[in-house]
Design goal:
The structure is a single chain. α3 packs across α4. This protein has four helices and two strands, in the order ααααββ. It has a two-stranded antiparallel ribbon. The chain is 48% helix and 7% strand. The protein starts with 11 loop residues before the first helix and ends with a strand. With 112 residues, it is mainly alpha-helical. A hairpin with a 2-residue loop joins β1 and β2.
């Protein structure tokens, strides 16, 4: 990351220009970045409608899971297939979640 020292990268166009001008980023597909740059960004009304719809449905799903099971929180390993779905839904809904580092000690888990 030393090659970033003294550089002024603040915008998406800065990132695109940096990637284009630096061979260290060779192999990085910029198609999505360039396509995003060509849009009107997060002020796009279609994007805003879909974001609100996803947030609403994610909140409804979490409420159903939590309230339907009399839960205050959902706990599970962060790298399990099922908990990644919950993490994504929680993030979309705007709910916080934490990851607690654990280590395996014999037949149990301990918080690090």
């Amino acid at each position: 990351m030393e090659f970033l020292i003294g550089r002024s990268i603040h915008t998406l166009s800065d990132i695109i220009a940096f990637n284009k001008n630096n061979p260290r980023t060779k192999g990085m597909n910029q198609d999505y970045l360039i396509a995003a740059q060509a849009t009107d960004g997060i002020t796009n009304q279609t994007y805003l409608r879909i974001r609100e719809k996803n947030k609403k449905s994610s909140n409804e799903y979490l409420a159903k899971v939590l309230d339907g099971n009399d839960l205050d929180a959902i706990v599970g390993p962060c790298h399990s297939e099922n908990t990644l779905i919950i993490h994504n839904i929680g993030s979309i809904a705007g709910h916080p979640y934490i990851t607690v580092s654990l280590k395996r000690v014999e037949n149990t888990w301990e918080i690090i």
